[in-house]
Amino acid sequence: VHRSMVSTQKSSSVRKHKRRRGNWGGSFMLFFLYSSSSALHSLTRGFTHSPTSSNIARRFGSKICWASPSPSQILDAVDSLKVDPDGFMERIRENNEPGMTPDFLPFFVDGLSLGHIKPSFAEHLRRFPDVFAVTSDAVSLSPELASLEDRSNAVDKATRALAAEGVIQGWRDEPYAVKPSFLAAPSLHVDRGAAACFGVQAWGVHVNGYVDGGPGEGLLMWVAERSATKPNYPGMLDHLVAGGQPAGLSALENVVKECGEEAGVPAALARGARPVGVVSYAAVRPKGLARETIFCYDLPLPRDFIPVAADGEVARFRRLPLERVAALVSATRAVKPNCNLVLIDFLLRHGHLTPDNCPAYEALAAGLRAPPPGCFAPN
Q: Which residue stretches belong to region Disordered (predicted)?
């Protein structure tokens, strides 16, 4: 099977996403040098951004629009990209942009500080005094809501009302468990689309689907192009499989579910995915404070396996050598932001980035697993 084989679910449509102008054509090269063309260098310089998108938090909001070229066009021209050594660290900074100010209010549930809320969103919560107690210092769930079911039902009713008014955007009808750690009992369930509004810790699973190409090719990774109809980050490049962690499923159960839905990976094959660690990030987004820990999985795939998008969330898949993946991550912003972290982790773990060819090796390893100080206040 040729390494550039493509699996297509449906044709891509024109994507208009906003980006700031930037020089992504890296003037330095790693020892594992990549070829580049001046044509694509000019192409990747062509990103622009809306005047209102003055920082990374806004630029990486869920409603983004592309100038030319689109991620799909960049993927088509990926063989002409070269690595920008400075770009790897920039991807980490983009996912961990400081911006949380002291006026963020701690969010308490049953005496536990489980989130951080923008004052502007807290003002909307004042309209539900039976659910939220809002002061100048904190937001707390009413102590009258003593059980998980009572809390979740009350918060669901309030947040659905705010979503209907457009205060909360991107409603998902997918409950997230609000808790201090992954294996702790949940204190509350909140819709995935509202998680950042409350600044609660979220979890997800990302699966690196790859093939051993043998001598001369090395490892080849499957990359997905998200559907243009996705509510968040439409058209951007993604992992073979990735998804948020819903309430009621184990991490492995979620991996198997997402593998079947997003890439047509049989359950027996998906269960072979190996947990290999975590990456984490925290940044202020338009909604609020996004805090997520991603469980990373490696899934070796047969050379003749071709993924198929079963749920329509992927426009196409393409299998790429690791050097092309490294170029996509470091020299463009075509990859969904948090996927960059998982891909950098993969490149480090599999020896593609090493202490000898990557000047920022130590900083990359440290930055993937601990948000920079000041990104969010400790609970």
A: 1-20
Half-sphere exposure of 83 (CA within 13 A, CB side): 21
Helix (H) or strand (E) holding 112: strand 112-117
Q: Looking at the predicted structure, is the pLDDT value of residue 58 above 80?
A: no
Strands across the sheet containing 132-134: 112-117, 105-109, 139-141, 132-134
CA 299 from centroid of its chain's CA atoms: 19
DSSP 331-359: H-S-B-HHHHHHHHHHHHHTTSS-TTT-T
User: How would residue 133 be classed by pLDDT, with cut points 50, 70 and 90?
Assistant: very high
Q: Which amino acid, one-letter code, is at 346?
A: F
- Tens of pLDDT, residue by residue over 75-107, are 999 999 999 999 999 999 999 876 666 689 999
- As given in the structure block, the two tokens for residue 65 are 């629009």
pLDDT band of 50, cuts 50, 70, 90: very low
Q: What is the mean pLDDT of residues 334-355?
A: 97
pTM of the model: 0.80
The token pair that represents 238 in the structure block: 């993604």
pLDDT tops 80 at residue 193: yes
Query: Could you tell me if 132 and 194 are in contact, meaning their C-beta atoms sit under 8 angstroms apart?
Result: no
Vertex 12: Cα angle to 6 and 13 (nearest 5): 170
The tokens of 33 are what? 């040098």
The answer regarding whether domain 72-98+200-368 maps to CATH 3.30.70.100 reads no
Angle at 117 between CA 105 and CA 284, to 5 degrees: 115
Tell which residue, 178, 261, 268, has the closest CA to residue 227.
Answer: 261
Closest CA to 270 of 230, 310, 237: 310
Whose tokens are 């297509």? That residue is 8
Q: Where are the domains of the chain?
A: 72-98+200-368, 105-197
- In angstroms, the CA 280 to CA 270 distance is 23
Q: How far apart are CA 315 and CA 225, in angstroms?
A: 6
**What is the CATH T-level fold of the domain 105-197, as seen in this structure?**
Transcription Regulator spoIIAA (3.30.750)
Q: Structure tokens of 24?
A: 């992504």
